[in-house]
Design a protein that fits this description.
Elements (H helix, E strand, L loop, with lengths): L5 H4 L2 H14 L31 E3 L4 E3 L9 H11 L6 H14 L3 H6 L2 H8 L18 H10 L8
Antiparallel strand pairs: 1-2
Length: about 160
């Protein structure tokens, strides 16, 4: 579960969307993963939250190398910018939640998330998270039905319109 409280996040739907993202990114699968907050792309775990792990991982099956880490698979270069922008001191679970919320805000999807307009929010955020439908990263994408189900399971209330 997201570590940020619903009150601090902007509502339960925001927390449910964060949980949906962790399901989509596959970071919460390993029971030893601290709910996905310490996962490096490819499935390895890192220790300590003082800083982004900054480990470049080669992913030959995808033909890429990535520094993605944490529950929302944030690249190291973006962590540095968000750390400064948001005044963060570390890569802790709460910091990761705050960064993901900021990314959602920057895509102008936060109102959609809060209102339960999942399809719209996912479409707006698809260029950030490779696992969301609508991106062009060439990686595995979940269906909107799978994402909506994850959102609901994690306590979100979807809009029917």
């Amino acid at each position: 579960m997201a570590r940020i409280t619903p009150e601090a996040a902007g509502g339960q739907n925001v927390c449910a969307f964060l949980d949906m993202l962790s399901v989509s990114e596959g970071t919460s699968i390993d029971p030893d993963s601290d709910d996905g907050y310490n996962v490096i792309v490819g499935g390895a775990l890192f220790i300590g939250y003082a800083d982004h792990p900054r480990r470049l991982v080669q992913l030959p099956r995808l033909g890429i190398a990535s520094t993605a880490a944490g529950r929302y698979q944030l690249l190291a270069r973006y962590f540095d910018a968000y750390k400064k922008q948001l005044g963060l001191r570390d890569f802790s679970p709460l910091s990761q939640d705050l960064i993901a919320i900021q990314q959602i805000r920057e895509r102008r999807a936060l109102d959609d998330v809060a209102a339960g307009r999942i399809e719209s929010a996912v479409a707006k955020c698809s260029n950030i998270w490779a696992s969301l439908p609508g991106n062009t990263y060439g990686q595995y994408r979940h269906s909107i039905d799978t994402l909506r189900a994850a959102f609901l399971i994690h306590g979100g209330e979807a809009c029917s319109v």
